[in-house]
Every structure is written in structure tokens, then in C-alpha cells.
Amino acid sequence: MKKYNVNKSIAALLCCAVLLTGCGAEGNSEEGMNIALKTPVTAAVNSETAMLRTIRDAKIYNGFVFPETKEYGFGDSVTVAGTLAYPGDEVKEKDILVSSDVSGMQEKINEAREKFDAYTEEYKNYVASQNLILKELRTKQSQAGITATEYKILSYKIESLERELEEKARLHALDSEYGQTYLKQMEEAMATSSVVSDMDGTVVAIGGIREGRYNSGPYLAAYQTGWGDPVIAVADTDELHIKCAYLAKNIVNKAKDIYALINGERVEVIYEPMSTDEYNELKDKNGDVYTTFRFVDMPANVEVGDFVCIIVVNNIEESVVSVSNSCIRKDENGSFVYVLKDGKNIHTPVKTGMRDSMYTAILSGLSVGDEVLGATKTDYKKETAVAQKADFKTEFEGEGTILYPKRVSVVSEIEYGNVQFEGAKVSMFQMVKKGDIIASVRVQLDEVEFQTQKTQLERMEQRYADFIAAGIQGKEIELAQKEKELQEQRDLVEKMSKDAVTTQILAPADGIVVSLTQYFQGGKLTAGTEVAQIADVSCCYIMAQNQNQQLSLGNNVTVSYSTGLNKQAEVIGEVVSLSEMGISRVLSSDYAFVKIPQEDIADLTGGIMASFGMCEITADIREMKNVVVLPRTAVADINGTSYVHILNEDGTVTTQSILLGGYNNEYCWIAAGLTEGMEVCLK
Q1: 641-647/653-663 β-pairing
Q2: 3-class DSSP state for residue 678?
Q3: Overall pTM surpassing 0.85 (yes/no)
Q4: What is the per-residue pLDDT across 529-569, written as a single tens digit (0 to 9) for each?
Q5: Parallel/antiparallel/unpaired status of strands 201-206 and 257-262
């Protein structure tokens, strides 16, 4: 993605205004701009001259260049086990993005499989034993000297046993089919319990996910993630489109012209309409609805995150004779004006065209140069400025905090005995290695319970030995059960012995300590109690406050932070998360993810944490290159329409409506209605 540099060109470009002959500059230039100011000719007070103007009805819709994005979620209720990909990470097709906790499901599968295997083994043993009985019966039946009555009885027993075996076989087949179907369904459910990408791309958003649960706090997302909602989004940054504020289909259909303005250049686009159902679905899903435009031909210089203005021209009359709205009068015959001619006010019927907030187009009845009564009074300063081409930007300022979304809990794994907290052996934001001591503990084992369990183990071992000595033929299932119970008891005694001598809680992974639970010395700990959190420093972001969604994917930001001892440092990061236009409401946030280069993380961590985790964020946003710019004091707003007062070569002044693209504290950039080199009067 691109890197933005602070643009310094605007001051230089606007310095080229020249003084009118015989008029001096008044010296009140904008800071850093040194714009030369001029003195125009005074306009008439009560009358005006009909002039050629462009009258337009147009609107601007702000937007950004977004990548093609796909959102993923779980189809059912799950407990999240962990996020395996984060904003800015490159992923491949079939990569697991988010996993769920399948331990409970795996236990059910194992239990069901054990029961199924035991049932199958029991059936096999039953069939084997019954076949032995059948063999004996048939042997007896075939012996010489057997009576007819004995033969008949044996035949009856054989037939009965065969029918019983057939019925058992039928029931076993049904039970087996059911069991296998159940296992298959469970295994399929477990296989689909992870969110898997079906495309190559870049992660651009994650929901409120943390290991073991959903989190609705500010760390990752502003909204609680519900079941079935998306939890992660992946983008194809090679497939780009534009998203802007919503345009209804009827607005587009009525428009005479629609195009995009990117870096001062016109770009042809295609409107993507939505059906009513699509609109309602998106409205329900996102809260806000945005409009998508596709590129007719992808410009070579367009990148993700570029600021875009969609220009919708509803109507336009170019170079048309026009006068102020106040000049137009009406009677029973229609519109008319008073034309000043030879010192007289001549009633002159006119045919009017479109109008804006100040001026009306005259289609017939007037000519350029006609002087008309009823002019709108305009006030100008005695200075002017010349419209120049320059790069325009808006400055963003905000705050951020460091975020480590990938964390592991350090917990007490001591299950048996009275566990007392002795003290932490690390401090906040300390780097640790796997196996480092996090805290010390003291364990008082229940000796009575321990001896009871040891005695129980000895008895079970003796019973197991007796069982083996008695022979296990035909008792395989019982043997397996006894072995399982014996091993469980051995594990219990071993765990109690291990817990009794435990004096330390160790780090389960490398990382930085980002949380320490405050316990008093001697405080009691139970199994699973969290004493600290360790974060993976390789997964580090700055969470920049972005309530107005000014920061966009691809923007470069400057992170300023304290290194201690009243020293400041800076590092350049990149926004790697989408703004709300590009994703669903449940994935959007009031924060932007800023990725920090790996080589800067270590220094950044110590510096920010030394100043309570906060840092300053600055960025150049909404950049437009090579556009017409003017000082803000050169642009007037009248009833929602922007105007400039153009100083003509003959000394006259023409008030002209413009299409204002945007502004910052000092300057405006003009999307339409003004060209480079035009001289305008200041308000």
C-alpha cells in the first residue's frame, strides 16, 4: 500500500498571484502562503450588467477507494477459541481465520465413539457365543442314535436361535447406521466450527473477539458480535471499487452526468443500483447504506484508500446570459426585468431557464452587457487571489493507545490444597520468556485427602492384579474399563503430589506482561485464577480514535510518543482496517487499526507505556492532488451554494457559482466552476 508524505506544495503554488497595476498589497496574507492581494473595480450598487455564467445544479458525494471485501462468520452458536489472523495479515484460500472451542464437542464425539465401539464389541462377542451354541446343537443333532423327539427339540432350539441372531443382526445394523450418522454429523459440525477463508487476500476487519469469549469493549470493536454475524473480513486489494454516501436510483436516473474526481482527474464510473430487498437488508445489517461505483477502466494511479468525490450533475446551462434572482419580476404575462436604457427603465419580458441561489439563466429577452435594475448587493475586500493548481489535504489529529490483541492468560493450575499467593515476580510491560517465573505461591496439601487417594490407588491396583490373575478371556470390555479407572486414579495422585510441591506460576509463552492481577500476600488462589496476561509483541497495533471515520484503509499516520525523560519520538504506521463504509456494522469501530513496522515495536512499547499508554496520532487525509485551490476567504456560501467573485480582465466582477470539493483551515479546493489562473475577490 502507498505511503503518503506531508505535502508542502500548496504554499508555493499560491504565491504566484500578481498585483494589479497601480494597486499595492495590504499585507494580510495567510500564514505560510504569502498570497499577493489585489484591488478590483467597484461594482454597481443598484443595477448590474447581464453576463455569461454557468448555472449548475450539482452535488458532491464523498467516498473512498475500497477493495473487494468478503465477510465471514459462524453459522451457529460457538465459543471462540482464538483469532488466527488480524488486520493487515495476508491470508491464503483455505486458511483458518477464527477457530472455536471444540473441546466439548470432541468429548461428545469421543464418548459416542467409545459407546459405539463397546456396543459393536459386545455384539461381536454375542454373535460368537451364540454361534458356538449353534455349533454344539448341530453337532448333537448329527450324532447317531438320537431319537426323533430329541431331534425335533434340537431343531426347534436351532431355529429359535437363528431367528434371534437374525433379529439381533437387523437391530445392530439399524443401531450402527444411527451411530455412524451421529458421529459423522458431529465430526462435520466440528470441521465447520472454524471460519475458513475461501480466497487469497488481506484481513481488513475483525469483530469483538478475544480468546474464550466475545468482547464488546474498545479493544477490538465497538459492537457486540452476535451469533451468525460476521466476525472477520478479508479483502482482495487488487479488485477495487468506490463507495460513497448513498445515492438513490431515482437521483442517478435524473442526472445528466455522473463521474468521479480522483486526484483532480475525471474518472468514468458505473453506478451499481440496489433492489429494495438489497437496500433493506443492507440497512438492517449496517445501519447506514452506501453506494457502490465500479470503474469503467481502472486508472493506473488509483490505490486503496484514495479519497474520491462523486460528482452528480442534475442540470447545467453553460455560458448562458444571466442576472441576479432579485432582478427577475413577474406579472400576469410572465417574467420580466427593467433594463436601463438612455436613462429610462424599460419593461422587458424575458424567458428564464434554470436558477441557483443567486442567479437565473435568461434564455431570451436580454443580451450580454444589458444593464438591469434590482441587483443583489455584493461586498468585496480590496484584495484578490489567483486560483492555482496544488495538492490539497486535510490534517487529522487524534489520540491512540497500544493494543496487543493476541494474548494468553497466566493462570494457577494448582487444583488440590490451599493455595496462597506469595507475590508477583514481574512488573507491568516487562518482557518475559516461556518458563519465566510470574508469581510465587505456597501450597498446603490436605494430607488426609491425599492419603485417602493413595490408599484407594493401592486397592485398585490390587483388584486389577487379581482380575488379571483370574483370566480375562471374554472380559475384554471390563478389563478396559478397569484400566481406564486405574489410570485416572494414578493421574489424580500424581497431580496431588505435583501440586503439593509447586511454588511458582510460570509464563506459558514469550511476550510482554500487559495485565497483572492485584493479590494481597496470603490471598487464596483457586484453579484457573488468572494472575497475569502475556501478549504476543509480534501482533501489535495502535488503536487510533476514529469517531468520524476520517481515517481510511491505506492512510499513513505519524505516531508520536514519549520515550521518557521528556523526550519524544515518532514512527510511521499504516491504517490496515476498513472504515464503516466498507464493512458491516458489527465489524465497524470507532477505532482504526494502525500497524507498526516490526522493527519499531520494541522501542514503541517502552515509550508509550512510559506515558500511560497514550500517543498522539497525526495524518494527512482526504488528499486531492493537482486541484484548483483558493483561500477560504475567497469563497462565499449563499443558501447552501458556494460562490466566488471573478475579477475580469476589463475590471468588471462576475459572481459565479462553483462546486466546492472540500476545505481545511486555510484553503478550499474547487471541483468545478473555476479554472487555474482566474483572479477572484476576497469576501
Answers
A1: antiparallel
A2: coil
A3: no
A4: 889 999 888 888 888 888 778 888 989 999 888 776 667 78
A5: unpaired
Pseudo-torsion of CA 542, 543, 547, 551, nearest 10°? 40
Distance of alpha carbon 195 from alpha carbon 192, whole angstroms: 7
Instruction: Give the C-alpha separation, 667 to 631, whole Å.
Output: 4
| Cα separation, 455 vs 28, whole angstroms | 97
Start-to-end CA distance of the chain, whole Å, equals 41
Q: In what order do the strands lie in the sheet with 511-516?
A: 407-411, 530-535, 511-516, 431-432
CB contact at 8 A, 499 and 525? no
Give the separation between CA 354 and CA 163, rounded to whole angstroms. 98
pLDDT score recorded for residue 361 = 95
Consecutive H or E run containing 680 = strand 679-681
621-633 pLDDT, tens per residue? 888 888 999 999 8
For residue 369, the one-letter residue type is G
Q: How many CB atoms lie within 10 A of CB 506?
A: 15
Burial of 7 (0-12, 13-18, 19+ CB in 10 A): middle
pLDDT in tens, 217-236: 333 332 233 446 788 899 99
Residue with cell 494457577: 412
SS3 676: coil
Would you place residue 101 in the very low, low, confident or very high pLDDT band (cuts 50, 70, 90)?
A: low
